[in-house]
Amino acid sequence: MNSADSLAGSFKNDFLIGAAVNGHTIVSQRELLIKHYNSLTAENEMKFESLHPAEDTYTFEAADQIAQFAREHGMKLRGHTLVWHNQTPDWVFDDGNGGTASRETLLARMKAHIMAVMQRYQDTSYCWDVVNEAVSDEGDEWLRPSRWLEGIGEDYMVKAFQFAHEADPAALLFYNDYNECNPAKREKIYRLVKTLLEQGAPVHGIGLQGHWNLTEPSLDDIRAAIERYASLGLKLQITEMDVSVFAFEDRRTDIVIPTVEMLRQQEQRYRQFFELFREYRDVLTGVTFWGAADDYTWLDYFPVSGRKNWPLLFDTEQQPKGAYYEVVHLSASRATEQ
Ligand code: GLA
Q1: Fewer CB within 10 Å, N- or C-terminus of the chain?
Q2: Which residues contact 338 (CB under 8 A, 6 or more apart)?
Q3: Ligand 1 centre from 285 Cα, in Å?
Q4: For residues 48 and 113, is the Cβ–Cβ distance under 8 A?
Q5: Nearest to 323 by CA among 7, 29, 16
Q6: Centroid of ligand 1 to alpha carbon of 171 (angstroms)
Q7: Ligand 1 atom closest to 211 (CA)
Q8: Whose CA is nearest to atom 3 of ligand 1?
Q9: What residues contact 200, with CB distance under 8 A and at least 6 apart?
């Protein structure tokens, strides 16, 4: 498993190589996962709505299967995600009488959820995305309006990190966000995490989701983001990497196989990204892809419904793409240099 001719094996002295999985892909991509990845993230199965559909009901089966797969194959597990404005059921925010839950109720529910979930996976999950996507994309607005923020107030994040640390003192706790290399948003994320640290919140890392494409973000912006976040003294991980072959505004639906030019650009981008990651191996502890191969990617449905995308290092047949060889040869060339 994970020998030198595998992706994870090639970077075994640098950082973990992860993939997001679900109940279907741990079967359909089983061999690929075992050979090339040494860390897993549950794509949806550990989110609030999946695990905790009603106040007294926890549904752990699907998440348990993923944790079991990780244990069986000696892989790490990244917990994802505890407190988020999305994929969180309405009951959390309701008072049961048609009104909204009080601050005390919300904090008690948050704590109960974090305790139950983290303690269940304590033996497998070495880290958690405690708060996901709390920063606003829009203009000068700092924090994203959310029912957590409205119901508890700005300290909801400090509380979340404190509860998580209490639940599992050994777990590494992350703040995770997207558009993380956009300079304006980068500064908002930096300010948020800095503020959390000043308030004594046990934050250990920042997750850069890494949903990128062939042109954006620029390498300079990625480097600047890594430098800025690392200046807080935290570990960093790329947590949800994919490299879409379409720009975000590109709404074409007539491309049914990736063009030669798309693949060439993608190879070049992946090579540059991993060159950069290697430079920062002291602060970067993991690179997780949001999927394992192009036969299954959330980008097949988003943002253009029904349009296929090819954002990963393995193709629809789960065979290595040119981009895979770019990345792996990079690590091989380093081995011969040393
Ligand atoms: C965000 C979340 C992930 C996932 C992706 C889209 O990045 O953090 O859990 O939902 O969106 O698939």
Answers
A1: C
A2: none
A3: 20
A4: yes
A5: 7
A6: 21
A7: 7
A8: 43
A9: 158
In a 10 Å sphere around its CB, with 0-12 CB exposed, 13-18 middle and 19+ buried, how is residue 138 labelled? exposed
| Residue 336, pLDDT score | 53
User: What's the rounded Cα separation, in Å, for the pair 69 and 45?
Assistant: 13
Residue range 167-182: mean pLDDT, rounded: 98
Report the candidate in 176, 161, 284 with the shortest Cα–Cα distance to residue 230: 284
Q: Which of the residues 43, 45, 180, 240 is marked catalytic? A: 240
Active site residue 55: no
CA of 240 from ligand 1 middle (Å) equals 8
Q: Binning pLDDT at 50, 70 and 90, where does residue 333 land?
A: low
β-pairing verdict for 211-213 and 235-244: parallel
Residue nearest to atom 4 of ligand 1 (CA): 43
User: What pLDDT does 299 receive?
Assistant: 96
Which candidate in 43, 133, 180, 267 is catalytic?
133
Averaged confidence pLDDT in the chain: 96
How many CA atoms lie within 13 Å of 140's alpha carbon, on the beta-carbon side? 0
Question: Quick one: pLDDT at residue 179?
Answer: 98
Task: Give the pLDDT confidence score for residue 138 in this predicted structure.
Answer: 85
Q: Rounded to the nearest 10 degrees, how much is the dihedral formed by the CA atoms of 302, 303, 306, 311? A: -60
Q: Any catalytic annotation for residue 279? A: no
* pLDDT at site 301: 83
- Dihedral over alpha carbons 293, 294, 298, 300 (to 10 degrees): -170
- Please tell me whether residue 193 adopts helix, strand or coil conformation: helix
